[in-house]
Amino acid sequence: MFKRVLTLVILLNSWSAIFAKKPLYFGIAVNNYVTAKPFTGFPKLFYSQFHPGITISTGITWKEKNKHQWMQTFKATYFSHRYIQRSIGLYSEFGYRYLPNKKLGLSVALGGGYLHMIPASEQFRQNSNGDWEEIKIKSRPQGLISLSLGVDFAINSKGYRGFMRYQNLFQTPFVPGYVPLLPYNVLHLGVTIPFSSLKKGAKNEA
Fold first, then answer.
1. Quick one: 5 exposed, middle or buried, by C-beta within 10 A (0-12, 13-18, 19+)?
2. How far apart are CA 87 and CA 183, in angstroms?
3. DSSP assignment of 126-148, as one string?
4. Strand ranges (DSSP E) for 67-181?
5. How far is 198 from 200, CA to CA, in rounded Å?
6. Residues ≥6 apart with Cβ < 8 Å to 85
7. Rounded Cα distance, 120 and 84, in Å
8. pLDDT grade, residue 202 (50/70/90)?
9. Cα separation of 165 and 188, whole Å?
10. Residue 200 DSSP SS3
11. What is the pLDDT of residues 85-112, one digit of tens each?
């Protein structure tokens, strides 16, 4: 119970920052989720499994100097892991972004938040009459930890940017006492659109 309350407090404090500064952009990405060990599971994103998802995002820049930015993103995601679960997540990441030039950005970010797991599997039990009846499995609140690496690039002069992001997402506790941590490798392919797209040179992060 304490861990759930602590996770909620951290999440609310992080998301409250979005009201302290003006968000820079709206982002949307399609995702593929693969259950595999962090980093070594990256190649499996392209041939092993397909568990689709979608993520919407926005973000702010806390500090910027020359080619360096310290930023924070705010994301909402949904994905479907066939036969296992459907999940809705809300999380925030703090990150560093390096811009070698105006057209390219490289970033790394670490964060966490809340994930709500909706079981997609079916379970049955035999009743006193010998018939099989379905057991209703309740959805469960979970914690979410995120570590991601990304590259973004300019699409046009209005500030639209495409991006690709590789994420290690950890869901915990997946099955308390049995599977405490479920790792996902996640591929994001998307675009960010600045809210002030008419302003030339608008800056944004994926």
1. exposed
2. 14
3. E-TTS-EEEEPPPPEEEEEEEEE
4. 68-81, 85-101, 104-119, 123-126, 132-135, 140-154, 161-172
5. 6
6. 117, 118, 119, 120, 121
7. 5
8. very low
9. 5
10. coil
11. 899 999 999 999 999 998 999 999 999 9
Distance CA(27)–CA(204), nearest Å, equals: 10
Q: Looking at residue 22, what is its pLDDT?
A: 77
Tokens 């302290």 label which residue? 20
Single-letter amino acid, residue 30: V
Which amino acid, one-letter code, is at 16?
S
Residue 137 burial by CB count (10 A; 0-12/13-18/19+): exposed, middle or buried? Answer: middle
Tell me what pLDDT residue 7 has.
Answer: 55
Model confidence at 133: pLDDT above 70: no
Query: What is the value of pTM for the model shown?
Result: 0.81
